[in-house]
Amino acid sequence: MTLLEGLRSTPAPLPAPVPIWHVEVTGEEWLAAARSVVAAGGRLVALWGSAADGLSVAAAYVIHAGLIWVELPLPASAPVYPDLASIFPAAGRMQRATADLLGICASGSVDQRPWFRHGAWPADYLPLHPGAGACEAGESIDYPFVKVAGDGVHEIPVGPVHAGIIEPGHFRFSVVGEKVLRLEERLGYTHKGIERRFTQLPPLEAHRLAGRISGDSTVAYAFAYCMALESACGCAIPERAAWLRALLLELERVANHLGDLGALGNDAGLAFGLAQFSRLREEWLRRLGEDFGHRLLMDRIVPGGVAADLDGPAAARLARHCDSLEREVRALRDIYEGHAGLQDRFIAAGRVTPALAGRLGLTGLAGRASGHAIDLRCDHPWPPYDRLAPGMATHRNGDVAARVTVRFEETQESLRLIREILGSLPNSALRREPQLPRGKTRGLGWMEGWRGEVLVALELEDGAIRRCHCHDPSWQNWPVLEHAVIGNIVPDFPLINKSFNLSYSGHDL
Amino acid sequence: MLRILKRIAQTGIRTEPAPPRADLPHEESLRIHRELLAILGDALTIRQVDAGSCNGCELEIHAVNNPYYNLEGLGIRFVASPRHADMLLVTGPVSRHMAEALRRVYAATPEPKLVVAVGDCGCDGGIFGEGYASCGRVANVIPVDFEIPGCPPPPLEIMRGILTLLRSKA
Ligand code: SF4
User: Fold this and answer.
1) Model confidence over A315-364: pLDDT tens digits?
2) Predicted-complex ipTM score
3) Is any ligand 1 atom within 6 A of the Cβ of residue B58?
4) Contact between residue A211 and residue B74 where contact means Cβ atoms under 8 Å apart
5) A240 and A343 fall within a common domain
6) CB < 8 Å from A in window 6-25 of B
7) Residue B93 CB–ligand 1 contact under 6 Å
8) Distance separating alpha carbons of residues A243 and A306, to the nearest angstrom
9) Residue A483: in which H helix or E strand, if any?
10) A168 near B CB under 8 A
11) Are residues A78 and A100 in the same domain?
12) Which structural domain range is residue A337 located in?
């Protein structure tokens, strides 16, 4: 059976706990592959470029069988490839970022505006080319926002510095009265050159950088990076390490959901919700700090295993904490669901229908709230998830209320998974240090973080990182937010935005 | 409503006493704190600026307002505009794309314009350092009065840092 119609060469499996293949293609196969992914009901996860081994552009697709990393080598004289944005709208911004970083362009794409480059570097400087040295700042770009004309339409520009304690980005609203006609985002303000920085770090230390791509997802990123590195090195991790990694991933999910549930209550006018959930979150982070040595769990996942362990009493204490937290979350859920004022703000706000979500590629938690039943832990359960049978939370309404419900359900399920893991932690070593191979190798990490699927594609050569591409699910979901707010009133934007809670830093790199 | 009230009653007050400065007894730090507030007006206002962080520092800055630390309860408030701020709390290595915005925020802040760099990145560039898109530490872009290291610094360290700076300025 062929994995993907339209490919002449056979994809090669990469060693990983989840099914991943790599294949090199020609220009025609590039488009054929994209079309057969659509035909097979698959999706685009990421698109990026590389100058590690000559120029190339790559796309990661998910089809029923797993993930396939499709790579198209490009001539240095004409580094262009067929546009994918007409097939997968989410590819648009990824293509623009690839052009900014590598000078590799999509031919025939409608939107060719720079995305990452605001003027920090000149247009002819290509930060990810191996020879790129230091550079002076370029001219600041006068970004051409799309203009909306008409009677009574006016523009509200917001940011990059926002009013609260949030990351920077720019939002341009076109409104009539209170109603949003159009929102256009401009991101890239926190672009700090992470992918270039990777190539300056030893592979066995770069998990620390991966864990700082988006602080709220430090576990998911360190996990994905280590999975990619272990895949490139052909190294399997000890059993106990695999269980502890899953534990850390679920602990991070709970921490974030607690924070969001409080903030969502607050944004809808229920300060009580914030007080309660921020208290629960603080108690949770204190427990993590005590048990694992870091409140946000940074640097606990390391190449070859983990740098954290729990003894029997600590495991029992954490399980008891889960019990009491579960009771509290249940009680608060009853209050949220029975609170007419809150539900009035939640229901129908920022709605993304399943059809729109499918067309735009909405993913992760927000995707599940719009009827897209995608969760790597359920679709391709790797150890220990294969033993835990995680349940998937989905909803069809696609509004703020649905995203709140999915968070409540996922919190409950994660607490169950945590207790199951704590009750069956196998005994083994915690780490088996990977041996860096000679020559060129590649590896890919693919992980279900709390926000959605995180991907890390790694290319090594003689013990050094040549290219490390990191993908955040926010890439898919930021453009959908632009659609979700249409027809809503401006004062509801903070609530709708929070219900997606997308990462700026994870996107900007 | 009844259920909410019941939960509030059950939860009780979780706020802990303000953190003592490492070398001062708790009472003393509270007294200094009161004096400082008298100097600055009846409250201290803070504008937080993320100049390129990974968002980890923001999570812990948020935490200082949770019921355990209750920074607002000490009269220290986060405000929406630099024009209303006594202090800027700046995180991240400053990305080149944020440098101009940060300079503008600084210019818009009235005296005394206290600036605190929060987190290893803000203090020395952290793991990101300086590069084609990063200016590194906050002090490379605007004058900094005080630095709170940590990746991220836990809420208690953030509060301790703010109080220590206030005292040194008194
Ligand atoms: S200090 Fe650490 S947590 Fe803070 S922005 Fe830097 S990497 Fe993130």
Assistant:
1) 999 999 999 999 999 999 999 999 999 999 999 999 999 999 999 999 99
2) 0.94
3) no
4) no
5) yes
6) 7-8, 11, 14
7) no
8) 10
9) helix A474-484
10) yes
11) yes
12) 236-430
